[in-house]
Amino acid sequence: MSNTSTKVVVTGAGGFIGHHLVAHLKKQGYWVRGVDLKYPDYRKTEADEFEILDLRRSDDALRAMRGGIDEVYALAADMGGMGFISSNNALILHNNALINIHTMEAARLHGVKRYLYTSSACIYPEYRQTDAAVVPLKEEDAYPAQPQDAYGWEKLVTEVLAHHYHLDYGIEMRVVRFHNIFGEYGTWEGGREKAPAAMCRKVAMAKLTGNPVVEIWGDGEQTRSFCHVDDCVVGIDKLMRSNYSEPINLGQDRMVTINELADLVASVAGVKIEKKHIPGPQGVRGRNSDNTRLREVLKWEPDISLEAGLARTYEWIEAQVKAKLEAQPELAASVAVGK
Ligand code: NAD
To answer: Do 70 and 59 share a structural domain?
Structure first.
């Protein structure tokens, strides 16, 4: 089947990765229906059709999958950064379980042949991530299971659901475990933003107000790897085209501390900052992706450097912060007072 006659649904198409994925799939020539509770926040969607639906409801999930859809990219989730994930366990488990159970079943009932589920590095057990100098996580490290939060438990259960939909119903399943995806046109304020976007916002505030203090949760020595969204959507596309149906990591395998992340953003911004370490949720102590399987299966791995990805992301977030400060001069003044 040629790309132009392949009909795909992207759920979570109003979200950060989802709206980038829609743009990527449109470039490849697919017919795309986007589904979400909302339209993308910062750009117009490129989807052929966009439906506002609540996938916690079975009738809405069935509507999302109607009309001869060939492939589904399931990205919808109630999620955010560590602050949101660590303090909304019941809400997240409830909402995401309903979204995934209904979306997968609706796809099956409508005869969808290929389905990609977006899992997370948050499924990995806490006991393997207690050291900042963590051993990179291999896919088989997931068990015995002990994710830190309900967000990770739900992802793991849906991975199991995907496995059985593959075995019992013959749906071609793809399961991708993202490791910290970042980039332009993503949430950068409001409580759901993740570390790279939050850091870009804080550094932009420091630069634009002249107050050099940048707050960091914890001692900043916790480690992570960060992957740019443009690499992420290419990886998703390649995985969907592969014949690999087991879970697979998708991320960078270069680990940095949060303090190093702050320094990198400051250097991109060309500003001197003063790091202030304050109490806050930090997640696991260390996390990195082992990309051995990714390289074997896809003959590819992400190659946008952290510096290059942060430069693009910072530029976009600085423009957002600048517009906000211009619209709210009293905010600029109150931040600058702390100088
Ligand atoms: P996002 O929050 O920007 O996008 C998720 C979208 O799902 C949002 O637009 C939201 O409105 C939508 N949604 C939530 N509830 C819904 C519902 N009931 N019905 C329909 N839509 C609903 O998040 P993202 O960063 O784009 O993440 C996409 C997927 O990747 C998610 O499944 C997430 O758990 C997973 N993931 C992301 C990362 C990351 O670093 N961004 C890491 C690991 C896993």
So the answer is: yes
Query: Quick check: CB of 223 below 6 Å from ligand 1?
Result: no
Which ranges in the chain belong to alpha helices (H)?
A: 16-27, 58-64, 82-87, 89-109, 150-169, 195-209, 229-241, 258-269, 292-298, 306-327, 329-337
Point out the ligand 1 atom lying closest to the alpha carbon of residue 187: 3
On whether the CB atoms of residues 138 and 129 are closer than 8 A, the answer is: no
Cβ neighbour number for residue 304 with a 10 Å cutoff: 18
Residue for token pair 């990770």? 152
pLDDT in tens, 278-311: 999 888 999 999 999 999 999 999 999 999 999 9
Q: What are phi and psi of 80, to 5 degrees?
A: -175, -165
Domain interval for residue 330: 195-224+254-286+305-335
Question: Annotated catalytic sites, by residue?
Answer: 151
In terms of domains, do 231 and 258 share one?
no
Residues 175 and 30 in one domain: yes
* CA atoms of 18 and 160, how far apart (whole Å): 23
Question: In terms of Cα–Cα distance, which of 103, 92, 149, 118 is closest to 235?
Answer: 118
Residue 17 CB partners (closer than 8 Å, separation 6+): 75, 118, 178, 181, 229, 232, 233
Gyration radius from the chain CA atoms: 20
> Residue whose CA is closest, atom 29 of ligand 1?
75
pLDDT in tens, 9-31: 999 999 999 999 999 999 999 99
- 327 CB contacts (<8 Å, ≥6 apart)? none
Q: Which atom of ligand 1 is nearest to the CA of 56?
A: 18
- For residue 311, the domain's CATH number is 3.90.25.10
Residues 339 and 211 sit within 8 Å (Cβ to Cβ) = yes
Question: Picking from 163-167, 217-221, 225-229, 332-336, which range would have the lowest pLDDT averaged per residue?
Answer: 332-336
